[in-house]
Write a structure and sequence with these properties.
The structure is a homodimer. Chain A is mainly α. Chain A contains eleven helices and no strands. Chain A is about 50% helix and about 0% strand. Chain B binds a DNA duplex through helix 5.
DNA sequence: AGAAGGACCAGTGGTCCGTA
DNA sequence: AGAAGGACCAGTGGTCCGTA
């Protein structure tokens, strides 16, 4: 019973590694040897076997897990974190110990793939089927070897990905402008909010509906801050237009 | 800012009590004096002011809350629980210290009204908007004075309500049959699963889709046991039909 | 300084089991 | 015994803040 789903999981690229590993390399990657991997998109990282298992009832019990400690990274336990992001133009690959924005957006697509796998397993087993990228999906991604995916990171940049999905032109223009000005990732990230609010204004302010209407965006929770910005902007817009209307018709001056 | 939503809340029947109180009486009611209330549907219970406030950020901060301890129930603190349910026919009012099944189903409609209010408040404030009857909705219902609504009860009978929504004919027939046989509520409740599985079979087994397609049912989580039953039944149906097919075509006998 | 992510926390879904 | 519901608990969404 439980083994069916696990079969489905490992069915694909099992000769060497689970298939999702392959996608990891598409943009760029973490640290250590990963800058060399960028273009060919084939070299694969062996996943660390994670010894401390969770005792959860369902789904995420281990596939095969027989690799030893780590064989990558020159043997040391030096690489701790992914390289930081820098602002890159569309199509541009980050140089040095940096990751580019195409790679960032690629991570969102990978999470989507992981969600779809989790959904397929859940359906096969007749269990509750998540519609969003939940903790369960992040846990699954980690188990599948995608240690470079984590919840705080993905949540942090969701609205940037949203702009990329909803208005790629504007997103691309913003990336070019911020790269040219030499801005850091934090500044670019902040700047992504405003054009998104403009998109929301154009479409009637319902940011949840806007996310849900987009096939790749619908699986992400609307970030709190984006929701608040849309609400604040709608309110002040509505207030000023009602003042205008009232001023002409009713106010005593 | 916060006051708008509260206005909307109390806007309606404020002369005496919040309007949702009125609906409470539609079927029958809890204990004490409530059996007398059944038919006219007007007498209203004053809500207990709940002194221990939650410190939650949003929504459920108190409306007006000025009534004193309790003035109902002959003064004593005797009534502790709702009267138990008994199996009644459609339209039949329970006698004695019992509640009928129309009243049970009415509670589901009330929860829906509470959800809609919570949703309206959330939308006005630009906050996350629940699509299901969540803990937040139960908390809101309690604050609004509907102390007779609680999560374990509502979850316990969801599938009974589902059958009522999805196949009222069958639901009514089941009620009549179980009443006639003098079965207790537990037996009736158990018996509601099977016809639901039949409904699911007819509609392609996707019980989540079936719930979601129904406007009054879509706000309820699919009960775990119902999901499991549908899955088990689909699996064994599929297995036996594939054995049949395989037996004719491929098996060596 | 700017940024990645382990780890925490309040409130959730789910339901058991002490209560009447 | 049959049933109502307080209260608990594992795992969630959300993000802070100690880390590098």
């Amino acid at each position: 019973d439980a083994s069916h789903a696990l079969d489905a999981l490992s069915q694909e690229g099992l000769s060497e590694e689970p298939v999702q590993q392959e996608k990891e390399a598409a943009g760029s990657g973490g640290g250590g040897v990963w800058e060399m991997v960028v273009a060919n998109g084939r070299k694969q990282r062996r996943r660390k076997s994670c010894k401390g298992r969770s005792r959860m009832a369902s789904m995420e019990e281990d596939e095969e897990d027989d690799d030893e400690e780590e064989t990558e990274e020159g043997g040391g336990n030096e690489r701790q974190r992914e390289h930081p992001f820098i602002v890159t133009e569309p199509g541009e690959v980050a140089r040095g110990k940096k990751n580019g924005l195409d790679y960032l957006f690629h991570l969102y697509e990978q999470c989507r793939d992981f969600l779809i796998q989790v959904q397929n397993i859940a359906k096969e087993r007749g269990e509750k089927c998540p519609t969003k990228v939940t903790n369960q999906v992040f846990r699954y991604a980690k188990k599948a070897g995608a240690n470079y995916i984590n919840k705080p990171k993905m949540r942090h940049y969701v609205h940037c990905y949203a702009l990329h999905c909803l208005d790629e032109e504007t997103s691309n223009a913003l990336r070019r402008a911020f790269k040219e000005r030499g801005e850091n990732v934090g500044a670019w990230r902040q700047a992504c909010y405003k054009p998104l609010v403009v998109v929301a204004a154009r479409q009637g302010w319902d940011i949840d509906a806007i996310f849900n209407a987009h096939p790749r965006l619908s699986i992400w929770y609307v970030p709190t801050k984006l929701r608040q910005l849309c609400h604040a902007e709608r309110s002040s817009t509505a207030a000023s237009s009602s003042i205008t209307a009232a001023g002409v018709d009713h106010l005593p001056f």
